[in-house]
Specification:
- The protein has about 300 residues and is mainly alpha-helical.
- The protein is about 70% helix and about 0% strand.
- It is built from 12 helices and no strands.
- Helix 1 crosses helix 12, helix 3 packs across helix 8 and helix 7 packs antiparallel against helix 8.
Length: about 300
């Protein structure tokens, strides 16, 4: 069965990130301001935290009772990699190609490199797609979680990772992606998943909630929305240059959702279906959640 509340929540979190980036473009290209609504939109970036917690939660309730061998670990890593890379690569490579063809397309001074754009590896320079840094953390968590499951020591491994992150943070030593404090959100989500699995009442509450279909659809396309909204907003805000802030925001968000729906239907849905065929049948978890976060 589907964890409907979290599925819808993931969609709303993705929409909040879209609003955050749309607001940044609107501040530059539009005239006027959005007042209180603009202030609310400026906090949308923090919804990335929700994605990280959700990833820890979902993977834990999907796999906490499993016993893995090397073959299970290999299938898991392959599935996670396909789920991240197959929807990402057309957007990441396409945007990089556009930046090469039109170097001055961006009006900022953001630097990027091809290798991180192709691999999502934390190699110092950022990828062409601005939100790709979050996928680096997702991939890292998938690896740590998989190794913990392979060792049969999920909680001790995650606890050790959290301890190393805290030590690195308070010692002032360089942390990089591996020991970045934001990774603690994955650990927090995993702990929440363990509590959820041990709380029958939580499951009953989840089953009793009725979520509007529109919110569930938004959750379904949330990864496509997360990947594609940046380039879409960039184009739309330039088209609407000089109009009112509210018009730029409305046009940008509407176009981003429409583009994400198209991308999901034309590409993401098909590659995800192929990826899921290699996964085992889930237990008490929505099939839609087997791909993790924002990444979702």
């Amino acid at each position: 069965m589907m964890l409907k509340t979290l599925h819808a929540g993931r969609g709303m979190a993705a929409l909040a990130v879209v609003a955050y980036h749309a607001n940044i473009s609107a501040e530059y290209f539009a005239k006027g301001a959005g007042g209180f609504v603009q202030t609310i939109a400026s906090y949308g970036y923090f919804r990335v935290d929700f994605f990280f917690v959700l990833s820890g939660f979902v993977l834990t309730i999907a796999h906490a009772g499993d016993r893995w061998g090397v073959a299970d670990f290999s299938r898991y890593i392959g599935s996670r990699a396909r789920r991240i890379y197959l929807p990402y690569l057309p957007v990441g490579i396409g945007l990089a190609a556009i930046y090469v063809a039109i170097p001055h397309l961006t009006e900022g001074e953001r630097q990027w490199q091809w290798l991180p754009s192709l691999t999502l590896l934390p190699l110092g320079a950022p990828a062409a797609l601005s939100v790709a840094w979050t996928l680096q953390h997702e991939l890292l968590f998938y690896l740590v979680f998989g190794l913990a499951m392979l060792a049969g020591r999920l909680v001790p491994v995650l606890a050790a990772w959290a301890a190393l992150i805290c030590i690195g943070r308070f010692s002032g030593a360089p942390t990089g992606v591996l020991l970045a404090p934001i990774n603690l959100e994955f650990v927090a989500g995993a702990l929440a998943g363990i509590v959820f699995l041990r709380s029958p009442k939580a499951r009953l509450v989840e089953q009793s909630v009725d979520i509007p279909r529109a919110f569930l659809t938004l959750g379904t396309i949330s990864y496509s929305l997360y990947l594609t909204h940046g380039p879409v907003i960039s184009v739309v805000s330039r088209i609407c240059r000089g109009t009112e802030w509210s018009m730029v925001m409305l046009a940008s968000i509407s176009a981003a959702v429409a583009a994400a729906l198209c991308y999901h239907l034309l590409w993401e849905r098909h590659v995800c279906h192929a990826s899921k065929r290699s996964e085992r049948k889930p237990t008490f978890v929505a099939t839609a959640y087997r791909h993790g976060s924002a990444s979702g």
